[in-house]
Each structure stands twice: as C-alpha cells, then as structure tokens.
Amino acid sequence: MTFENLLKAFMDGNGRLTVLSGAGISAESGIPTFRGPEGYWTIGSREYRPEEMATHAMFSRDPWEVWAWYLYRRTVCASAAPNHGHRAIVEMEALLGDRFRLVTQNVDGLHLNAGNSPSRTFQIHGNLNFMRCAQGCCNTLFPFPDQVEYKKKNQAVTPVEKELLRCPRCRGLARPHVLWFDEYYDEALFQAETAFQWAITTDLLVVVGTAGATTLPMHIGHMIFKNPRAILVDINITDNPFRTLARNHPRGVVLDGPAGDHLNKMVSTWKNHALSIR
Ligand code: APR
Questions:
Q1: Which of 8, 119, 169, 237 has the maximal Cβ count within 10 Å?
Q2: Average pLDDT over residues 39-63
Q3: Top-level CATH class of 3-276?
C-alpha cells in the first residue's frame, strides 16, 4: 500500500496518532538544534557541552552559570515563532481530535504557541517558560518573573535577578522547569508514564526531527511494533535510530527531508480525503 493510501485508511478508521517531536521541527523557526554548535557554553577558558551544562550536578556546583545559559536559551526561544511544521501538527489535532496526542522533547513552547492544546500535549522534557523550586518544596510551575531580562550569550545573572529566581513558596533557589541529563523521567512533573503508555499503544507514530539520543523516546520506538497494527514514520534530514527501526520493519516509513514539508503533505492528504468522501 502506498503511504498516501495508508494515511487515508488510517483516517477512515478509529486508530490513534502520536506525533513525537524533537529539536529538528523548531530548526525551521531559527532555534539551533540541541546538539548544534550554538549549544556550547564558555566558562573561563573552558567550553561546556549541553550534556555537562544541563545537569543537576552542574546546577549544584554553579547555579548562576546554569541559569545564565538557560536565560540565554529562553531568549532565543522567545524570539522565535512557530513555523509551518508546528502549524501542520495543530491541523492534525483539529482533524483527529481525541485520537491525537503530541509528545515533545522540545522545551521552547512553540507547539503550544502554535495552538496545540495543553491537554493533548506531553512536554516530557519541560518548558523553558516556567521555573520551579530547586529544593522540591512543591511541584508548582511558576511563570518567569517579568523583571528577569532576556539575555545575550554569556551575559551574567544580576544580583536583582538572583533574588527573583527564587521559589515564591519557600524562597529557596528556583530552577528551570526542564529535565536534566542526570535526572529521571517523572510522571508528576512531565506526565512521562502517561505519554509512554499512550505512545506505545498508538496506531500511527510520527517521529519528527529527533536524533533519538534520549531514553523515553527510544523506548517508545523499540516498543511500537509490539502493537500488530502500528505504523512508524520517521521524518528527518539525517539518519537516526528511529529511521533504522522504520527501515528494517515492513510497517516502517522513512520520509527524508525537512519536517514542515512532510507534515504539511500528510495534512493535505487527510484534508483532500475528507473532502472527497463528503
Ligand atoms: N527537519 C527535520 N529534521 C531536522 C531538521 C529539519 N528541518 N533540522 C534538523 N533535524 C534533525 C537532525 O537531523 C537531528 O536528528 O533534528 C535532530 C535534532 O537532534 P538534537 O539536536 O539532538 O535534538 P533532539 O533529538 O530533540 O534532542 C533530544 O536531548 O539534549 C537533550 O533534552 C534535550 O530535548 C533534547 C533531547
């Protein structure tokens, strides 16, 4: 069956769709991918990789350097707008309603800005627009204090901002609402288990713009074909472990090229099909 006919058959049935997104979808909005050259951060004469900066260990040692890095990343994200790939995923949700869920690793908030509903979106790595208590006095997500400025690269956190980046409840240090490399996925903060259970029982899993370097998404990839109906689609501009899974399975589909183009083609197929059967 062609991919187009497969999409039409999916639309006619009552199967569920999961879109699993990574940094590649936001690349077309001008946000550098996580492992691109912009990810590096200089402290003194040393360059740090995201895998070192985005850790609880680093935050414990040097919270203000880690905050400065996140405030800069937040600035990059805040000046970016959703692109046609994000908008295509909004259309998918509109077409499929409760048959749809989005699992995103992106902390830029662009899926929600584009219009995907918070109730059907699992932000399994958090969202940079929020902070929470670093001591864990509560799980409340606090919006950023307005007075904290957007930052240039390597711009330090000011003494006034250090007072603002505190937990409003216990006054201890606040932290960005993200999942760090040395932390575990968590249901209370990230709905990780709910996202996982939905995704592995889904009928169509569309993986878009991820390098497949994180554990929960890859676990979904390794489980998906246990569902005898499931189809895995990988959209990416390079090889990645999801593509390998898709390539080596009869129910796998590889779509090579930019995220936005392929997602919009899928939406067009579904819309035209809906019109043709009216
Ligand atoms: N269209 C499709 N894919 C793209 C595009 C594009 N226009 N541009 C880049 N890509 C792909 C790259 O080929 C790569 O496979 O997006 C992927 C980006 O990989 P990463 O930067 O590693 O991002 P991601 O996979 O989302 O990282 C996952 O790891 O570092 C942690 O928590 C962080 O959420 C992040 C997670």
A1: 8
A2: 84
A3: alpha beta
